[in-house]
Design a protein that fits this description.
Layout: H1 10-18, H2 22-45, H3 55-66, H4 77-102, H5 127-140, H6 142-152, H7 158-165, H8 169-187
């Protein structure tokens, strides 16, 4: 009978990395790589098909941002997932801004979120537009902005968001509904 190796304590290894142990990061990557790939594919699937950024490149860029300044500590694997989601958001926004700059003055962005889920921002809105809207929402309600970020940019489900934020699933559901409605209004104000 083949015995499957057990997963090491991922949170402990991540915290060892946060404390400067690069060996712990090398040890934990195989156990979080699948989840990071899922997040990256989910995030890029929501964008136009003609962009050039691939999931592996998104993950590599995320690591380039996280490794020099790791978080001070992590409460759980889900907490790391939230931090990774924010880093991916920053990579996508920077990627889109650089592509717009290449077009001399920007115009409509190439990298856009689609309407894959009910309540997502309207078609044709770029990652930069979404980032701007979430930043504005954070000034009004930081918790809802955090939930929306984890949902859109982290590909997290309500239960994962609830665990990350230390909230009930019902509260996360309400926050997402209200946050999505707020974003929709912000992005398409009625005149």
């Amino acid at each position: 009978m083949h015995v499957m190796p057990t997963e090491p304590p991922v949170t402990k290894l991540l915290n060892q990395w946060c404390e400067g142990d690069e060996g712990a990061l090398a040890e934990v990557i195989p156990y979080i790589e699948k989840e990071l790939s899922r997040q990256a594919r989910a995030r890029l699937r929501k964008n136009r098909r003609d962009h050039t950024l691939q999931p592996t490149a998104l993950i590599n860029e995320m690591w380039l941002r996280l490794i020099p300044t790791p978080p001070k500590s992590l409460q759980s694997k889900a907490h790391f997932g939230g931090i990774a989601a924010k880093a991916m958001r920053n990579v996508l926004v920077d990627y889109e801004r650089s592509r717009n700059a290449e077009k001399r003055g920007g115009g409509q962005a190439n990298l856009q979120l689609d309407e894959a889920r009910d309540g997502t921002p309207p078609r044709g809105r770029s990652v930069v537009d979404i980032d701007e809207a979430i930043t504005a929402l954070a000034k009004v309600d930081a918790r809802k902005a955090e939930a929306v970020t984890l949902f859109y940019f982290g590909g997290m489900e309500q239960l994962e968001i609830a665990q990350f934020l230390g909230l009930s699933v019902a509260t996360v559901k309400r926050d997402l509904e209200m946050g999505k409605a707020w974003l929709g209004h912000y992005l398409n104000p009625r005149r």
